[in-house]
Each structure stands twice: as C-alpha cells, then as structure tokens.
C-alpha cells in the first residue's frame, strides 16, 4: 500500500445495513446484542440441496424501500444484491445528512464490493429460459449480472461524478472497498466515499458450489467451538459513509467513529486458505497504518467463519500479534448470528465495530458453550458484555489467500 501524502483524518458519518437479523442498523445491532440467530431452513429454491440451511433476508420490500428514489429509474428492475446495497446506502446517506444535489459530485466516490454480483440473476435467467420455457431473458439481464451495477445504481441516484466502481475479492470484497475508499479520502482524491459491499447468493448453484468444497455446515455456524464444522451461506449488504474530517466538520455533521488503519495482503499454499503469517501481517499493517500499539485495541470482530482451519489459524495469528494483550482482548464472531455474507460480510462486521465503540457493548459469539481447546482466547461466549471500546479491529479472510484488517476508533469531539 502506498504511503505518500497521508494527511487527512477520515471519519464515518453514516452507516446502513440490510441483514438476516435486521433490515436497518438499529434492528441489526439490537439483534446482535440479543444474540439472535438469522440462520434457518433454505426456502424458495425449488430443488433439494445437500445443505438445507442458510441466513436469508425475509420480507425485504424493494417497492417501499425505493419509493422516494428520484433519479435512478431502473432500480426496481435490478438484481437483488443491488437492492440490498442500494437500501443500505440510502440509510447511510440519510444518517450522514448530505444535501442534494451534491455540492461537488466529482469529489464523491462510490466503491461497493461483491463476491458474486448478480449471480442470482444468472440462475433465474437459466431457469426461465431452459426450465420454464420462456422465449427470452429479461432485457435488464446484463446490468443485473455485472458486479459494478450496485455502485452504478447508487451513483446514479445521488448524482455522483467521482470514482464509481466495484471490487471483487470474495469474502474480503467489502473490506477492500472500505480500505480503498479510506485511501481515496485521506489522500485527497475524494472528500466523501460511499463504501461497503453486498451479496445475495442463497441459491441452488451457490449452495452446491460451496458444499462441493466442504465449506458449509449442515448444522449451523459455530466459530471457535468444538463442533465447528463449516460456515453458513448468507446474504447481506452494508454501507459506510467515509468523509474527510474537515469536510464533515464544515457542514456540521456528526462523526460516528474515525477510521484509522487498513491492512491487506495475500498468501496461501492453495486457493482455499489464508496462511497464519498473512493474517498476522495484515493486523500488524493495520496497526502500523493507524499508528497504534497492539495494546490499544479493545475489541476484535474476528473473521470467525466456523471453518476449523480458519478459526484455529486466526487464533494463532491473534496470539502472535497481540502477545500478552491477547488475553485482555474482547473478541467475537458475529457470523455466528448472521452467517457468512461473502462480499457483504466485512461491511456489516465493520458496522458492528462502530456500534461497539458508540455503545460500549461487545456482541457475543453465540453457541460457544464448548470451545475448541485450540481456540482459547476470550471470544465473548454466549452473552454480550459491556466494555469501553476506544479502538476496534475488523478482520476478514477470503479464498485465494486474501486477508484484510480495518481499525476504527472513538470519534474526537
């Protein structure tokens, strides 16, 4: 990562989320603190699947969510992952209180990560054409499919003229989008960055593909527990508004938190894991980028996907980076409640970090009644805990050996 011209402080002025346990940030955070699980039976796919559980969003109504959208006339014809991203962006923009039309639209960036983009639209098109016997596919199929569509829809609605694009890096997609937006703002490329990620892949083919790699659990998501035997596929979207602190102050906006550091690296001996040393490296890089010591971190939202090798490797990496302070950390995996949302995961988990800083609550790792003895840190088992959190770290790993780490801190008055 380039280190030139780092000088502007970057704050978070808005957040938005659509998840299996809450379709706005308030409901999502309340569910996290209550230890509510969004994992349940897969419905609506139409074929028998080998893994019959997922974390789906039920009752999402795009008609009501986009009834006040004025500029983007095609959002209702888009793919589900775009709907989720757009709804999260709408909530985040409203909280940020940015006025429209934007005063300097060329100074606003929009970067939305997604592992699969409009994957669900491809499956629907195949069913329509070859199983239902329809003579044509939907005329919006191409923009429904491409991963840049979510960023484009948001950009159109808000009149954004700055860098607007997508990032794809599997489960690290949203973290890379947030990190790149962070760099855009602190280096003066943009004053505001709308960043995050979204995925909607609870589909027949996605379940088959993940099960073929033995990634999925038939029972649930049990990070760091003796019974951890895979992850649970989920859908979700999360969006953060990152803003230059001086820009936010000039317009009287309230900062929810300050973003301080970002680390990213790649390394594995295969396609499907991340080396422990790489996970160590990104956490150290994020701390160095933030100018913080390991002892400054109070809370880590762990990757914690329930896959045995990932849970054990992340535990080893945390011990290596934090040393004796590792035993004083509060750590949790919120995936135990909302599942693994792939390209949306890092965004909703970063929001959990920001809310933890705001409210002084550590969300729990549920179903951790019997820990794996190799995962012997404080993973906030079963129940939430109150604790002052001045600095929080969010870790996300991905296939192809990609690792990321984000750091947020209490906003300065």
Brief digest:
The protein is α/β, with parallel strands linked by helices and 413 residues long. The protein has helices spanning 25-34, 62-65, 80-96, 119-131, 141-145, 149-158, 173-186, 204-212, 245-250, 276-290, 308-322, 335-338, 345-359; strands at residues 10-18, 40-41, 53-54, 108-113, 164-167, 192-199, 236-244, 257-266, 299-301, 330-332, 361-362, 385-386, 391-398, 402-409.
Explained architecture:
The chain folds into 2 domains: 10-250, Peroxisomal Thiolase, Chain A, domain 1 (3-Layer(aba) Sandwich), CATH 3.40.47; 261-409, Peroxisomal Thiolase, Chain A, domain 1, CATH 3.40.47. The two termini are 29 Å apart. A hairpin with a 3-residue loop joins strand 13 and strand 14. The chain has a 10-stranded mixed sheet, with helices on both faces. Strands 2-3 form a two-stranded antiparallel ribbon. It has a two-stranded antiparallel ribbon with strand order 11-12. It has 13 helices and 14 strands. 57% of the residues are buried. It is an alpha/beta fold and 413 residues long. It has helices spanning 25-34, 62-65, 80-96, 119-131, 141-145, 149-158, 173-186, 204-212, 245-250, 276-290, 308-322, 335-338, 345-359; strands spanning 10-18, 40-41, 53-54, 108-113, 164-167, 192-199, 236-244, 257-266, 299-301, 330-332, 361-362, 385-386, 391-398, 402-409.
Topology:
Layout: E1 10-18, H1 25-34, E2 40-41, E3 53-54, H2 62-65, H3 80-96, E4 108-113, H4 119-131, H5 141-145, H6 149-158, E5 164-167, H7 173-186, E6 192-199, H8 204-212, E7 236-244, H9 245-250, E8 257-266, H10 276-290, E9 299-301, H11 308-322, E10 330-332, H12 335-338, H13 345-359, E11 361-362, E12 385-386, E13 391-398, E14 402-409
Helix pairs in contact: 3-6, 7-13, 10-11
């Amino acid at each position: 990562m380039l280190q030139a011209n780092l000088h502007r402080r970057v704050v978070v002025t808005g957040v938005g989320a659509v998840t299996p346990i809450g379709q706005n940030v308030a409901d999502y955070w309340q569910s996290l603190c209550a230890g509510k699980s969004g994992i349940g039976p897969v419905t609506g796919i139409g074929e028998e699947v080998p893994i019959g559980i997922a974390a789906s969003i039920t009752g999402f109504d795009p008609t009501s969510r986009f009834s006040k959208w004025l500029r983007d006339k095609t959002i209702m014809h888009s793919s589900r992952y775009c709907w989720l991203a757009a709804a999260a962006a709408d909530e985040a923009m409203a909280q940020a209180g940015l006025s429209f039309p934007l005063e300097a639209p060329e100074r606003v960036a929009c970067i939305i990560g997604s592992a699969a983009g409009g994957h669900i639209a491809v499956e629907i098109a195949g069913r329509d054409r070859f199983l239902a016997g329809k003579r044509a596919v939907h005329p919006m199929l191409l923009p429904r499919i491409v991963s840049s569509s979510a960023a484009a829809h948001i950009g159109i609605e808000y009149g954004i003229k700055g860098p607007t694009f997508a990032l794809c890096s599997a489960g690290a997609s949203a973290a890379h989008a947030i990190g790149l937006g962070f760099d855009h703002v602190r280096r003066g490329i943009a004053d505001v960055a709308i960043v995050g990620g979204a995925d909607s892949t609870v589909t027949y083919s996605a379940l088959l593909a993940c099960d073929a790699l033995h990634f999925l659990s038939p029972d649930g998501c049990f990070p760091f527990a003796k019974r951890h035997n895979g992850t649970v596929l989920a859908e979700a979207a999360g969006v953060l508004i990152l803003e230059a602190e001086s820009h936010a102050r000039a317009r009287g906006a309230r900062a929810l938190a300050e973003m301080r550091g970002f680390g990213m690296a790649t390394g594995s001996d295969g396609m499907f894991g991340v080396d422990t040393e790489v996970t160590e490296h990104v956490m150290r890089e994020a701390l160095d980028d933030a100018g913080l010591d390991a002892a400054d971190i109070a809370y880590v939202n762990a990757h914690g996907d329930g896959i045995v090798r990932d849970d054990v490797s992340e535990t080893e990496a945390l011990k290596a980076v934090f040393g004796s302070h590792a035993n004083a950390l509060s750590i949790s995996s919120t995936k135990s409640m909302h599942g693994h949302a792939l390209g949306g995961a890092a965004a909703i988990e970063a929001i959990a970090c920001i809310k933890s800083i705001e409210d002084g609550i550590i969300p729990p790792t549920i179903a951790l009644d019997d820990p794996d003895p190799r995962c012997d840190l404080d993973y906030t088992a079963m129940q939430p805990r109150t604790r002052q959190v001045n600095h929080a770290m969010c870790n996300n790993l991905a296939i192809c050996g990609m690792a990321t780490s984000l750091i947020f801190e209490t906003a300065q008055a």
